[in-house]
């Protein structure tokens, strides 16, 4: 298995994996997410073209097994927040048929190395309350809850 930077040639594989995670989120949190659609392909194509965004894929042979997106932010305006670079994970998804094989851990390790190279002092991500499996995965990697995003439907 190897990890490499995604290219526009990976769009279809990214789209297929993204549909898995999008469907999971839509089924479990329809108040926040829409059903997967072709619009997602445009979003992914734009993300691939964004030079500030990292998209890594894990593959074996020609099969894409998972991907992760990340970018670095740095607060320059809010006086009471740290000013250090922060790596923000956008999406991580491992093919439903490939889970528990270390793919997610490998992708996270690669992003952590990338983030360190850019001087990031933290990695942050958002995980939905319904996604207990993802929460346990992040717990094992040493992540801790830092805040809680709350909502109220009107």
TrEMBL record:
* CDD domains referenced in this protein's UniProt entry, alphabetically: NAT_SF
What's in the keyword line of the UniProt record? Acyltransferase, Transferase
Q: Enumerate the InterPro entries for this protein.
A: Acyl_CoA_acyltransferase (IPR016181), Bact_Acetyltransf (IPR050832), GNAT_dom (IPR000182)
N-acetyltransferase domain residues are 1-154
Q: Which Pfam family, giving just one, matches this sequence?
A: Acetyltransf_1
Record's keyword annotation contains Cell membrane: no
| PANTHER family the UniProt entry points to | AMINOALKYLPHOSPHONATE N-ACETYLTRANSFERASE-RELATED, AMINOALKYLPHOSPHONATE N-ACETYLTRANSFERASE-RELATED-RELATED
Q: What's this protein's name? A: N-acetyltransferase
Species for this entry: Vibrio hyugaensis
């Amino acid at each position: 298995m190897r990890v490499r930077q995604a290219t526009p040639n990976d769009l279809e594989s990214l789209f297929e994996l993204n549909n898995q995670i999008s469907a999971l989120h839509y089924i479990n949190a329809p108040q926040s997410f829409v059903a997967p659609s072709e619009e997602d392909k445009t979003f992914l194509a734009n993300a691939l073209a964004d030079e500030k965004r990292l998209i890594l894929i894990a593959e074996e042979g020609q099969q894409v097994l998972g991907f992760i997106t990340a970018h670095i932010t740095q607060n320059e305006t809010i006086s009471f927040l740290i000013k250090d670079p922060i790596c923000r994970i956008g999406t991580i998804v491992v093919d439903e048929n490939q889970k528990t094989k270390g793919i997610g851990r490998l992708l996270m390790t690669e992003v952590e190395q990338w983030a360190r190279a850019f001087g990031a002092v933290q990695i942050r991500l958002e995980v939905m309350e319904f996604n207990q499996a993802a929460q346990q995965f992040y717990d094992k990697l040493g992540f801790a809850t830092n805040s809680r995003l709350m909502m109220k439907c009107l």
